[in-house]
Amino acid sequence: MGALSRRSSLILLQMVAVVSILSVAPLAGGGRGLLLLGGWQPIKDIKDPHIKEIGRFAVNEYNNQTSASLRFKKVMSGESQVVAGMNYRLIIAAKDGKTTRNYEAVVWDKPWEHFRQLTSFKPVTH
Fold it and tell me: Which residues of 22-47 are buried (b: 16+ CB within 10 A; e: fewer)?
């Protein structure tokens, strides 16, 4: 097989793999429908245990990084984005003393590598 033929076969194989992943990948975390690479998609089931776990992680990691003492209450809404893994942009209700406030958290998750990183956490301002 010539070099051009091998290259064409490799490109075709990569294209099939990408199409397969994007069209039939099982969707953990809230049944979001088809995955669209790069675009933010609403999370339909914010009560999904994986989404709650991501929300708890965001609050705990923020506390660890800042010495804050927020307490996770619930995920109010969220979106996901396919990257090298998955980004989750969540609106989280967290209690600070007696006051509950909403925060926007972005978490990068790559479960197959056991990798999770808080990339942004800020109060929601109206």
Answer: eeeeeeebbebeebeeeeebebeebe
Q: For the chain, give the number of residues.
A: 126
Which stretches within the chain are classed as H helix?
A: 3-24, 49-66
Q: Distance from first CA to last CA of the chain, Å, rounded?
A: 62
Helix (H, G, I), strand (E, B) or coil at 67: coil
Torsion sign over Cα 102, 97, 118, 53: negative
Q: Tell me: the pLDDT tens digits for 41-67? A: 999 999 999 999 999 999 999 999 999
Answering whether pTM is above 0.85, one says no
Per-residue pLDDT reduced to its tens digit, 105-125: 999 999 999 999 999 999 998
